[in-house]
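TL;DR need structure tokens for one chain.
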Amino acid sequence: MSTFTQEPHKLLLIPGPIELSDEVLYANATPPMPHTGADFIPIFGDAIRMTREVVQTQTGQPFLIAGSGTLGWDQVAANLIEPGEDALLLNCGYFGDSFADCLRAYGANVDEIRADFGKSVTQPELEAALKAKKYKLVCFTHVDTSTAVLSDAKMIGETCKRLAPESLVILDGVCSVASEEIKMDEWNIDVVLSASQKGLGAPPGLCVVIASQKAIKVNEVRKAPIAGFYSSWKRWLPIMQAYEAGKPAYFATPPVNLIRAYQVSLTQITKSPTISLQDRFELHRKAALRVRHAATELGLKLVPVDPHYTANGMTAIYLPEGLGVADVVPRMAQRGIIVTGGIHKVNKDKYFRIGHMGVSVVHPERGDIAKAIAGMQEALQEALASKKATLAAKESYKPSPVRNPAVPRAYPRSIAVVSARL
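>> reply
TL;DR here they are.
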């Protein structure tokens, strides 16, 4: 058993990367091992199997590939869409915009249902779109990190199964996997894409994608060549299958240390003797309620319009009138708490975001949420007091009266004489 303890640092409460456990960090810091060696193969195989458990699928195929969550968009677009085919994007924020851009880059015709800022796409809107046109893909961001809006994944999957059973349902779960419940098989979700650095509780750098057997079949029978090399499932599928079967295989070098850290985190998530997966979701929900309650107690407004469609792994909060991100976020950093501002093109400087995922909520004895709430209260009070003092100083300042140019100025006699001579 390692006695490693991470060094003191500012509390990282952005919507990813997040705080990590000592065990996960230690696993990432151990000496590298050969990626086809006997020691690494079972680690990789375990990581693949436990990934299924997190999204509650029996038959989904995980792909664990070095890259950011953005690589998940490329995997979907390269493997599942062919040039000229139609995709529907349910857009509720910044990352919906980017997902649509990625699909178009691979030749897809993308229609969008765009929700207003702080809202999610409704069932009637989805039903109308599916009745009007057939789509190869129906894509949505489960939690859009720019707004903290939570889409109704169950409703989307079930609506597509009823009205468009041939469509593939794609869930972007970068900011939701392991902090929001996802029942991939039961809800008719064909692809879940995510990344290691958020609810999955590992360092950044690993793209995590789980594809249904329906999606794998669509990839196998496509007519056009796969529009990607590194992102091709036909190259990666044999690798994943080999490692899960306990055999070495090679296409591209996997991030050995990162997968080792990810496997440790998955063990903590799925094999804890005291905290079940359902307990974990409930702890995230309670932490989110604490943060939202504290914000409303301060008179602040949340970005998501409907509490029912508000994420449990992060919170987006409007700032008081007259304050910007630069007034609050640095003040929280001075108190040892790292949060971040908005990134959506609408109201970008008018709100800030707090992440509450992983060990910060699963282990309340750390006190991370309490510290975040206290820091938010103090930073806002200080910022408002500073703003009030600045306004008071401006009001008390009385400049000299402005001279009316129509009235001759009375110069001293010496100046007047010189002027007359000139």
